[in-house]
């Protein structure tokens, strides 16, 4: 019956196209030509984030989309090694193999082991933390994992003041308004913290780990502070501008010292009148060979008050942004980052829901193909 049905469809298509059945371009031909003249995703590796372990539905959808890069941390519990350190070789190896068993590749470690408050605030015990981080770098290098996304946000990581703001069609997005936190108590337990001290701690860290990362063949990709404001509850923030990233790169110039170009975080830098020119920033840092990972997302607003958006509904010209990655020959990992929570989906993990991720990947892949076609 199946063969008959296929012939029936072919006959229908042939008639509609005014062709005899023998003249239809075979589907194989169409598929092959796409593969031949369209470098998959422009040579970039599209990835999804998995911060809550191996989520079966998300993994299956990723395989169906051909998005085979996994971005996440090293969790001993994920591989039945509770109690072991997450920087140890056997734990990292087991996590890597768990992703491979799902048909995915652990492409970027985001939120790495042993890079915590002591290192970022320069507290007692930071040297032990840094030593364990170096062990982690050596271990992932030996396993061929070459990219680490880290950030310099101690105590308070990425933060929002509203995790369910209504966006297009009632989809839910996260938003931030500095007015909503200005009366929150200052955190004093870490003593007197200054931006200068945070820079000193950054320099101390880079000087200790970048030489080891170079030897291990690993690239560190520093993520901007999100939101990129001067501080939250007395904890200073320094990675809040394009100039800050230029300064960071100059602290220790190296192919192993680079950036996670989180477009949403860069787009929320500055204020209403002097935002970041995203394509120009991509080209600047790209020409320095400093972009090792991309979070491709967008916002509306600026650092003191912004909301996240669908990829096609923000303030950035996303086509020109993608064109800039093409111009600099970026061939590294890219993930959608935060997405709206759409109808029928859960908002349990704001920014990381499943249906919104599908929309984002479709949009990103379409942009890449459009830029590719326009450039050939
Ligand atoms: C995101 C974060 O803030 C951002 O732009 O990339 O959700 C990030 O993924 C987390 O801090 C984990 O690294
Ligand atoms: Mn990001």
Explain what this protein looks like in three dimensions.
The structure is a single chain. The chain is an alpha/beta fold. It has one domain (26-375): Divalent-metal-dependent TIM barrel enzymes (TIM Barrel), CATH 3.20.20. It has helices at residues 2-17, 27-37, 56-65, 89-101, 117-121, 126-142, 195-216, 242-251, 263-267, 278-287, 318-327, 354-375; strands at 45-49, 69-72, 105-110, 147-151, 162-166, 172-177, 219-223, 231-232, 235-236, 257-262, 291-295, 299-302, 305-308, 333-335. Strands 1-2-3-4-7-10-11-14 form an eight-stranded parallel barrel. A four-stranded antiparallel β-sheet has the order 5-6-13-12. The chain is globular and about 50 Å long. The two termini are 43 Å apart. The model is unreliable at 1-6, 12-22 and 29-33 (pLDDT under 50). The structure holds D-mannonic acid (CS2) and manganese (II) ion. Residues 223, 262, 265, 295, 337 line the site of manganese (II) ion.
